[in-house]
């Protein structure tokens, strides 16, 4: 089963060599194959660079990207891999050139580890789209580097962000990916009073409901579990809750929204085209749910043209977007909603 946890002394890594537990800098939970099997992995960090920080991790969120990566569903992973890219912790070490944080600060890392800082996108403040001379594997938090399923993390200080004091750690870590992924396009494109449709009410979707409502929009939540989630979604700020799988209901609401944010990934052509049809003329349809490799769609381009619908994707968010999202979340008391698992589930 996914997440089986065992010890495996034969596992080793080129950047983070295995160490005896007494001499280790940290202990990770690493995946060693596509099963995927999780193993205990005590290790040593490389020497701290002048621009790096090290933190003691207190909380790490579980993103579906971690599942895709652990199972090699996006690309062939170099095992062992330590996933987790919603990382929150306390700074324990800083390099000689680090100025933005200090020992004792509570900080977080999202999915992006590094950027060049000098390409056209970085200069525009869109460092999540960095096109500079940075190895592709160095841009993201894990593989080959280790992510947040560990006791400690080490990485460049330029991509870490301070956590506002009022945000609780146990409900803030997932904001560092899920939160900014939906906040960034909403903040960029929606206007107060507009109608926003949010498709797929899970980790991303329920945060999108909160952000859209706080931005002054009329919010419709589309979910496959209307009866189960309607009361909770209404409390979160949804003005209406509708089915995301009833084609007749979706068709009846065609052209309803200035902005759609789709948190689902689906290769169901009728459903996906019905989702796009929810967008009003000259509206925007934003895709943030990322599919596994091999999922393809046939989209009715004539409807896009005839309705002048803007169909686009959004890539997480920049460091600046993340900082703005955290400040907005603190101001509007927006955090992850979750139900604590039972001891058996844990």
Describe the structure concisely for a colleague.
The chain is an alpha/beta fold.
Question: Which terms summarize this structure?
Answer:
about 350 residues, 14 strands, alpha/beta, five-stranded antiparallel beta sheet, single chain, six-stranded parallel beta sheet, globular
Please specify the SSE layout and strand pairing.
Elements: E1 4-7, E2 26-31, E3 37-43, E4 52-60, H1 64-70, E5 87-94, E6 106-109, H2 120-123, H3 136-139, E7 152-156, E8 161-162, H4 178-189, E9 195-199, H5 203-214, E10 218-223, H6 226-236, E11 240-243, H7 247-252, E12 257-262, H8 269-277, E13 279-287, H9 301-307, E14 310-313, H10 319-332
Parallel strand pairs: 1-3, 9-10, 9-12, 10-11, 12-13, 13-14
Antiparallel strand pairs: 2-3, 4-5, 4-7, 5-6, 6-8
Helix pairs in contact: 4-5, 4-10
How would you describe this structure to a colleague?
There is one protein chain. The chain is built from 10 helices and 14 strands. It is α/β, with parallel strands linked by helices and 346 residues long.
């Amino acid at each position: 089963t996914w997440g089986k946890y065992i010890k495996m002394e034969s596992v080793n890594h080129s950047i983070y060599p295995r160490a005896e537990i007494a001499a280790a800098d940290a202990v990770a939970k690493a995946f060693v194959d596509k099963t995927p099997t999780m193993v205990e992995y005590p290790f040593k960090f490389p020497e701290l660079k002048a621009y790096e920080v090290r933190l003691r991790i207190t909380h790490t969120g579980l993103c579906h990207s971690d599942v895709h990566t652990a199972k090699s569903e996006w690309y062939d992973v170099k095992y062992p891999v330590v996933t987790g890219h919603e990382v929150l912790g306390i700074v324990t070490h800083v390099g000689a050139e680090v100025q933005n944080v200090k020992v004792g600060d509570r900080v977080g890392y999202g999915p992006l580890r590094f950027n060049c800082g000098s390409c056209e996108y970085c200069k525009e403040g869109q460092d999540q789209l960095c096109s500079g001379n940075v190895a592709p594997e160095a841009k993201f938090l894990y593989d080959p580097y280790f992510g947040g399923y560990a006791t400690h993390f080490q990485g460049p200080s330029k991509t870490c962000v301070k956590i506002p004091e009022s945000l609780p750690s146990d409900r803030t870590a997932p904001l560092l990916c899920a939160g900014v992924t939906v906040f960034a396009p909403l903040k960029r494109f929606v206007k107060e009073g507009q109608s926003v449709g949010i498709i797929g009410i899970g980790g991303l979707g329920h945060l999108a409901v909160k952000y859209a409502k706080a931005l002054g929009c009329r919010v419709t939540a589309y979910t496959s579990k209307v009866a189960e989630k309607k009361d909770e979604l209404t409390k979160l700020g949804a003005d209406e809750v509708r089915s995301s799988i009833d084609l007749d209901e979706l068709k009846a609401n065609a052209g309803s929204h200035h902005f759609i944010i789709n948190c689902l990934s689906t290769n169901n052509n009728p459903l996906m085209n019905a989702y796009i049809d929810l967008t009003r003329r000259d509206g925007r349809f934003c895709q943030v749910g990322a599919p596994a490799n091999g999922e393809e769609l046939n989209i009715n381009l004539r409807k896009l043209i005839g309705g002048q619908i803007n169909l686009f994707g959004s890539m997480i968010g920049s460091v600046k977007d993340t900082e703005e999202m955290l400040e907005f979340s603190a101001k509007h008391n927006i955090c992850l909603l979750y139900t604590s698992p039972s001891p058996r589930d844990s």
